[in-house]
Amino acid sequence: MRLTLKLKLIAVFSVLVLALIGVAAFGILELRDYNLQVSRITEVYTPAQGLLLNADRDAQQALVAERSLLTLAPGSEEFDAQLASHGENVEQISERMEKYAALVDADWSRGMMEQFWPEFAAWTEASGTLVQDLSSAVTDQQQQALASRSISDLNATFDAMRDVIDSLDEELEGVINQEALEAAASYQSGRSLLTVLAAGASVVGIAGAAWLTVTISRGLSQAMAVSQRVAGGDLTETAVVRGRDEVADLLTSQNEMILKLRAIVTEVSGGAGQVSSGS
């Protein structure tokens, strides 16, 4: 195959373009992985953690409302306000935990949520029964009995429910930290590899340019040297032809010219010698 200068240029630039495409493709893949990890943190785990914290706050507020009912007269405005607050907070706990379960669909989370719902149901049933009994309590003795039940029996179910929420939050915090570490590692690894690949592409481009420069300049320098010798009348040397490109064609043409000039000089010298002998 005849490797012309045009083909050499196409080959060098093709290799350079492919190297740059490879660098860009690798960079896109690394950025995609990094973005996925960051997206999981910002769009899944952080909102889920916020839901857990708010659910825990709602539980505390429901407990405060429940204890406040023990000190208020049934039917009063303050009693009705705390009763509404208790129901609202219980409902919000359920809604937030359902949203959390929809966001974090991991095995460890599903297992802990299976523990949460029975504990939540036990607490809401016990607390709801207590609140209902408080609404109908009319004597101090009845309220004291209900207060004792709230402190003894309901504390256990309330703490069991909150323990599950706290465990979920701790586990999720560990997942967030792990994701953050993996995202940082992916970023560092991708940046290092991209730097290496970019440097490799630069080396390929420089090497290709140097190869073309040497190939062309060496042949042209040799052609210039031959032309200068011919101009000075030296027809004894010809150029060394390497390759099969346009520069090689130029050197071959010069060599043919030198051989023809030698033949002409030899012929002229022979004719001049014969003329001298005839004289």
From TrEMBL:
MF terms in GO: transmembrane signaling receptor activity
Q: Which UniProt keywords apply?
A: Chemotaxis, Membrane, Transmembrane, Transmembrane helix
- Which SMART domains did the record assign? HAMP
Q: Name one GO cellular component term.
A: plasma membrane
Query: InterPro entries, from UniProt?
Result: HAMP_dom (IPR003660), MCP_chemotaxis (IPR051310)
Where would I find the HAMP domain in this sequence?
214-266
Gene3D superfamilies, per database record: 6.10.340.10
Q: Does the keyword Membrane apply?
A: yes
- Transmembrane: present as a keyword of the record? yes
UniProt record, GO biological process: chemotaxis; signal transduction
One Pfam annotation, family name? HAMP
Residue ranges of the TM segments = 193-214
Q: Into which family does the record put it?
A: Belongs to the methyl-accepting chemotaxis (MCP) protein family.
**Name of this protein:** Methyl-accepting chemotaxis protein
User: Which organism is this entry from?
Assistant: Rubellimicrobium rubrum
